[in-house]
Amino acid sequence: MRVKAVLKSLLLSYVLTGISLLLLAFLLFQFNLGEKPVAIGILVIYVISCLAGGFLVGKIIRKEKYLFGLLVGLSYFLLLAIVSFAVQGKWDMTMRHAVTTFLMCLGGGALGGMLS
């Protein structure tokens, strides 16, 4: 039951990420956004997606919500890093960016779990 809840939450997070990134790409081409707004937009998308996943897992589990939210955030980041590495064939993040993204994913997931 718990694994299934986490997987459902991850699926929601990644569907939300995909839709949001498509919207961001549309905005990028329509308004010719610079690199910094796009990078900020991507981080915001990560946080909101983890928040939604943490919220869903908290609603499903109803016990230790923030821990399962943390688990969703951690799983989201790990899958994101693995897929990024597999597609590019190398680690393409600075350590500072990786740590920031990691903490934002964990925080988003935990906050979503607490708010559920």
Explain this structure.
It is built from 4 helices and no strands. Helix 1 (2-31) crosses helix 3 (65-88), helix 2 (35-61) runs parallel beside helix 4 and helix 3 packs antiparallel against helix 4 (95-115). It is globular, with a radius of gyration of 14 Å. Helix content is 88%, strand content 0%. The model has no long low-confidence stretch (mean pLDDT 94). It has helices at 2-31, 35-61, 65-88, 95-115.
Care to give the gist of this entry?
The chain is 88% helix and 0% strand. It is mainly α.
Number of H/I helices = 4
Decide which structural class fits the backbone: mainly alpha
Series of secondary-structure elements, N-terminal to C-terminal = HHHH
Distance between the termini: 18 Å
Q: Give the overall silhouette.
A: globular
Please render the helix and strand layout as text:
Layout: H1 2-31, H2 35-61, H3 65-88, H4 95-115
Characteristic key phrases:
mainly alpha; 4 helices; globular; 116 residues
